[in-house]
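ARCHIVE CARD
SHELF: 3
SLOT: left
DATA:
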Amino acid sequence: MDAVPSQTATQSPETSLDFIREIIEADLAAGKHAQIVVRFPPEPNGYLHIGHGKAICLNFRLAEQYGGRCHLRFDDTNPAKEEVEFVESIQDDVRWLGFEWEPHLYFASDYFEKLYEYAIELIHKGLAYVDSLSQEDVREYRGTPTTPGRNSPYRDRSVTENLELFKQMRSGAFADGACVLRAKIDMASPNLLLRDPVLYRIKRAHHVRTADTWCIYPMYDYAHPISDALEGITHSICTLEYEDHRPLYDWVLDNISIDCHPRQIEFARLNLTYTVMSKRFLRQLVDAKLVTGWDDPRMPTLAGMRRRGYPPAAIRAFCQAIGVTKANSVCDFGQLEYYIRQELNQKATRRMVVLDPIKVVIENYPEDEVEWFIGDNNPENPADGTREIPFSRTLYIERDDFREVAPKKFFRLSVGSEVRLKHAYCITCREVVKDEAGEIIELRCVYDPHSRGQTLDGRVVKGTLHWVSAAHAVPIEARIYDHLLRQPVSTGDLHADFNPESLKVLHAALAEPAIAYAGVGDAFQFLRIGYFTPDPDSTPQKPVFNRSATLKDTWAKLEKRLNQ
């Protein structure tokens, strides 16, 4: 590998010196490595979630920071659950987050022949044997955390017999589950993972890359360390649940003829309130059709977050802020939303949209007149320019912005009160029109023609409402998303945990005409409502928008109190 000058963490303004960087800097200072090489090794059996996003950011940033490289390697050792769709979605996610791996794209299946050869070497050394126990018996013989395991009756097979049986396994002579190849380590080890772990199993399943060439497949704990070593990985960084796997990782590399021995380092995985970081649970949601798919905006998958309108820069900022530790903890979902709002506030184009419309007729405004007002596209970024907003006699406002009898401190519209329409005039409600059922269907108002852009006579108008012109309104569908789970922490019960109020679809929403230019990936702030993005389901005839986040930021307030 090419040597690249290393960069110390203290030279980087973006990252603090966490325990992983301390290890890397010590290794570089000691001359152990000329260049660090890390990897992100997902299994293509589902879509990545934000927990994987944290690992992506960590590994690729380490490579950038220290002048090294990061490999993208697919752990495709279980063909029964792996699909090309997942491989492609994972590559899309990594690139969406802003990282690139080319030309270092690898698959565990690239090494199937080498993995087989190393298994033969272990058999020759008397360190692996073919076990013909059933799966149930293998589990029974393994023992428990408090009782040692028992040796399999097949553990002392000769090297010659094991070699012949393993070759027969590869040739397809045995049925699935008839036997396995196990490492010969220590059936009394307090670490259950060292009690003669399975290295290979028979599985007749079509592999997306090797087709039907193989009917035996290596286990993750065997394939992973060898794949790391073959690629010259220096630091194999994984989440804390693999800490007990590290002795097996080292045992495999210590007992085969390979020069490279990466160092495995574990860090705490990301956990978020009101959601789950489990592909198994997420797959159940998809299979049960409780969500529309892996990219449903309620899902914590990166594809779901992209569809919901989360900016990748916000996810990177969140992952950097929560840092890297050894202690498991749960992050408040509001902390993620804080970074989403921070980013969207800077980039989102402002538009006026009424989600639950109620008609307003301005009786003293000319019936056929249309005025055009100028509104900022984004007051945070004047370079985004302005747009024209039509104003006419008949408008729509939010139903919730009106009260027939206003409670105390209600500064929106009520009978006899005055409010300002954003960018336009002040209006006063004079009359309420109801249908036969007593529901309000129309508000009769008057406007002050002298209030354009100002309030005269020294009077104070406290409320400002958003609105759309009825004659120019664009019908849209708005999808309002809430938390995936009912409660902060999952109970593990799919149907009990799932929040049935996690999606509300509003079909009657109306938007100002400038919304017609929206494209998938654009970000909007619907004034006084929240941040929205067009959904791929949108059509020119019926635009569809997903709410990315509300305007209210409870996390920022909590953080301020905690820092006082």
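SLOT: right
DATA:
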Amino acid sequence: MPAGFRVRLRPLFVLLAAMALGIFAASQLPFSVPLWSLLIVMALLLGASQALARYHPAGNALCLLTAFFVFGIVRSDQSAQIRRDDISHLIGGPSVWVRGTVASATEIRHARFGGGPSYSFTVKVQEVNDYRHSQAASGWLRVAAFSCPSPPQPGDLLWLRGTIELPPPATNPDSFDYRAHLKRQGIYATLAARREGDIRRIGRVPLPPVMQVAAVIRGAVEKRVQSHLPPEDAALLLGMLLSERGQLPIDLVDAFTRTGTVHILSVSGMHVAVIATLLLWLFRAVTLPKKLGHLLCIAAVWLYALAASGGGGNPPAFRAALCATIFLAAPLLRRNPEPRHTLAFAALILLVLDPRTLFDPGAQLSFATVGTILLWNPVLERCLFPWEPGLPWLARISRGIVAAVSLGVVAHLGSWPLAAFYFHQYSVVSPLANLPISFFADALVVCGLLFSAAPFLPWWLISQGLSLLRESALLFAAPPWAAFSISAPPAFLIFAYYALAGGLAAIVRPSVLAPRPLFTPSASPSMDTGSGSDISPPASRSVTVAATGTADRK
């Protein structure tokens, strides 16, 4: 094989793939393997790997990969186990009283044809009473409250009355599967509190200090946004800042879905990246020490993720905060942050903590999109517009526009197979719509946080920006050809698509992104100095050195 096509298998990526395959294999097994036997096999494999480390590198690698494969099966089996006292064992029984603590932010939904609002939240179960005796219970319960004077808050201790039910499945082949959605979060049962008195507050459980600060921040942001903006603008801004989508108009959510920009309506990697970049710039502007600035930025990112989650239940925010933490912690450990390794390491940690993340559509879309951007966007930039020093300002602006469009195209190429598989829709305008809509969303997220901290600023600017964002989404979604419904492609074709994209990137990247030589003797002009040596002219040398310095900085 030619040297230009040599592919290096990086250990972190291979270990991640081995564990992911183990988790997937565990989900396909028709039987359950005893946990103790898996642990023995994994211990033997690790021992064999250690014994072969010095004498047989290939055998060492094979044993280590197999151990990670078995570890994926172990973690998958552990996450799928349900305790004997789990609340889901009461599904189908008579009405009971359940005592538990509110463990998530409350989603508020207003009725379309009159009536009061309904509330949806998650409860961590502690006790069950069947009107005769009480017994301890565990697990999580998703509650829908239709007659409640005020929305419960995280930390509220409640008694709930109702029947324990199984979450409803998808009613059509291509519709949303609510049961599978809750199962990926470890929730196997629901309760509907329909009458007055079905919910009774009996106290509060003190939250950790960090959670209390996050709750105060969330409440302050909600209060100031709702007091300074009209209801429609406030709903849109809170959707971007805190993932509150319950009060957004359906036609607006549909417009963002058709344009492939619905990701701006929940706290995710885009929001965290913008906030982290802004904070690092501010810390650098006030000449704060680099390590201290990174530590403060990590703390701020997690505080924002906790505030956006409302106490829990927002995995995208936590995934983004974890990726940002790994990236920001690299300089603290005297390491250069490498985006691809940061993404892979974050994915490995998430799978270790919760193997169900592998089957989460949001996680799959996030990692597939970001991974495709990291692999292919530098290649496109180098091929479309190689950097040259001394570019005029008009050329720099043109280059930035082309770079933004190429970024949208690459992001679309990385997301459309999974979007088609889960949502059965293909957005034609997504590559173009993401450019202005994401730009407006980034600016509004920053302005929303700044204005919430300083409410004396002119809020009409944010109102105008929200109107522009709304009109942009509706304009891109208006044509009938903006998006169309498609059937879900087979899973093996999606896997082959991403495997092909990753394999081609591994082959193309080394040749395209290879460092360029200082100068080529055969191509550079020479001067006869009388000594038989070729020396480049001063002007040629200066341009070559400047180009090399720019490439090194990049």
